Structure formats: C-alpha cells, structure tokens
Amino acid sequence: MKGIDPHTIVLREFETCKIGARWSSANRTITSRELSAICAYQDKTGNELFTLGYQCIKATNWVGTIGIGDKSIEVIPKIDAINGQLSDVPTRENLLAMVASAGYVPLARTEIARLAYDGKPLLAAFLDLYVDNLAREWRRGPIRRYVTRIENRPYLRGKLLLPEHLKANAIQQQRFFTVSDEFIEDNDVSRLLKAALYSCQRQQLCEQVARKAKGLLPDFEDVALVEFAPEERDRLTVDRQIKRFEPLVNLAKIILRSSSPSSSSAGDAVYSLMFDMNEVFERFIAAELHLALSGRQVTVQSQVGGKHLLHQNGRGRFALRPDLAVFCGSSTRCILDTKWKRLDLDKTHANVSQADMYQMYAYGKEFDSPRTILLYPRFGSLPDIVATYEHYDKSATKSDCRKQILVATIDLSSPINSSAGIKMLHQSLHKLIDDSKPVNAGNTMLLLAV
Description:
This protein is an alpha+beta fold. 34% of the residues lie in helices and 27% in strands. Strands 15-18-19-20-22-21-23 form a 7-stranded mixed β-sheet, with helices on both faces. A 5-stranded mixed β-sheet has the order 1-7-6-14-13, with helices on both faces. The chain has a 4-stranded mixed β-sheet with strand order 3-2-5-4.
C-alpha cells in the first residue's frame, strides 16, 4: 500500500483525535480551524460523525472520509482477527466490499482491491475511479439523446411556434421562434456526469484527481453545467441504450451527494463520504443472505412489516419491522436482526441490551418464528453462538412449540472481497439459518413462559 497522505489522519471507530496548534497526521492532531468546520458541517447535516471531548474529538460508528480543504480525516471500522485487530489495508478492503455489496457504490472486486491499496483517502479514491472510468466510457462514445429545444433562432429549424414568434419577433423579424427535436449530447444524464466531473475538478483533497478532471472537462464542452436539486438528481435513470453508463451515473449521484461542498466560517470547503456502520452491516448481511440462499426453496425479505406489538380499537400499534425474515412458503423459517456493536463476555448478558431481547421475543412471538437471531460482528475470541435462549407458550405441551433466540456473531476479518472469503461468509449464514437443532452455547438456556 502507498503511504497515506500527510494531510490525512486515519482513525478507527471510537478513537480520538487531539486538538492542537498544528495539524499532524502522525500525532493525530487537528487545529481549531478544522474543528470549527466539522462542527458546522455536523450542525448542518444533523449527523454526529464525531463527538467533542476535552481538547479532542472522538470518532463514532460513522466510517469513511470527511475532507476540510486539502486535509481529511478517514475513519475505518474496528474489525478483529483471531490474532488481534485487522490492519488498515485489509480493513479498508473489507469495508469497501461491504459498502459495495450493500448497494452504496458500484464497485467491481478489482476496483475494490485497487482503492484499498492506493493510499488515497476513500473520498479521493472514489473521485479518481470516477474520472478514469468516465474518460474511458465517454471516449468510446458520448451520450446523445433526442431533446426538445424551444429557441428563438437566427435560422428556421423545426416547427415554427407562430404565437410565440409574433410576440418575440415583432421587431427582430430576422429570427424564428421554433421547437425542434435534436440528437445532442446536452441532456440530463450528460449534465449529471459533467456536474460530478466538475466537483472532482474543484475538490482540494487530491491534486492529481483535480488535474485529470480538468483535462477531461473539454470533452463535455457541448454539455451545459447545471446544479441539480437533490430530488432531480436522485430521479435520473438510464435506459437500455446507455446501460454501460449506469455505474457511472450511480457514482456521480454519490459524488454530488457527498462532495457538494459546504464552506466553513474559515472558508474551507467541507466534503464528506461517510457511512453509518449500523446501516452498512444491516444492508451487507441482507445482500449476502439473499445470495447465500438463492436457489433454495425459501424467500428472503428485508424490513418485513405487517405485524404489531399491540392493538387498540382494532388497529395495530407499535409496528414490528425486523431487518430480515426467511420464509418457507407461508411459514416463517427465521427472523434476523443485525447490531453493529461489540459484545463482551465479561459483561452481563455479554453486553446484549435488554431492550433488544424484548424486541427479539416480540418478533418470534408475532411472526411465529421458530428461530430469531440477533447477529453481531465477531470481535476477539467470541464464539459463533454467544448465547441461546428459549421461550414457549405455557399452554403448549409439545417441545417443538419452543422458540429459540440466538445471540450470534459473524466473522468479518476474512477477505470478503475474494471468492473464498464470501464462500466462508455464506457457509456461516447457512449454518445459522439451517441448523434447527438446539445449539450448544457458552451461556445457559433461559426458558420463558408466555
């Protein structure tokens, strides 16, 4: 891996960064100028990327890059291997693989490996990837579409709009107010791509990316440079004729969403490409569970609704919405909820929240699920199954009426950007879902009557 830029500070989740007189990557120190920019950005977005302590800031479970002018702070997740904490490069690679699998960014495995080992801050690496791929595809052939243009022209083209023509050209009779369909590069998708390219050229995080973007902009001279409102940007789609541009369009949306700069009071542009690890973990497990169980006689659904904890006047109250559910026909096979949190066997109930257990109990009861799983990332020497609990209907007499709640972990330290790593992950998910026998765990089973 290339050395991290001296303008970049790398932190793990919940690590601290000092506030001092000078910026220092080696000493993990920022100045009050960067602090003010971060606080202003957090106030504007409502996302708590860092918490403020005594002469320091502390990373939260948001990971990625925040850039302030030409400096950046990169936060990567804490992922443990058997022999200790995973080093920075494989952690970056696994994070990128999870983010890609979760559907946040369109990345191929080869691109993930290159970005992980590049040494650029994640945001700068995404911008570099975008500029390189856009240059290749645009030079293969730009996007041209028929666009309806209404203009007051010095020549006659298309259909003359007589009422508008008479109104606009009562004096300048040498012009023609017309409407025409023209096959041109200046269309909404091309404009989106150019807007993202322009953002790449303006950023200060990586001078090399800015130079490459500036060199590519002349290829878009026939495309208007416009600002997109968030709803306009997110609404744009590609059709079959320009399918090869779909990954670039998706990446352009991410760039515009993440790197549209807001300025701090000191005048520094603030950019952000940050992901909430709670959401990343949930969406990653959902995507991989779909793949792991594809071809089986089961259905996997995300964010399942339709059930309520209580009812009032015939209406459901307090909706229950587990992260994932596996169905076999009309029967529930398994309910699964993810939690990005460190378990600790030395703490009461291994640091599992009592509220989370109440929620899992409600899921099992209302969805009539024989197995409900609370899934955490594995840290240190945690076992696959941390604890197994049972609950049952006290009016039932058959043992198969008992329902299990498992507190389980999954290993994220293996190279999940590789076929072998994904295979191991899928095998672990299979085992969780398929093993219907009582599971031996370190903790004693707790029997609850309902």
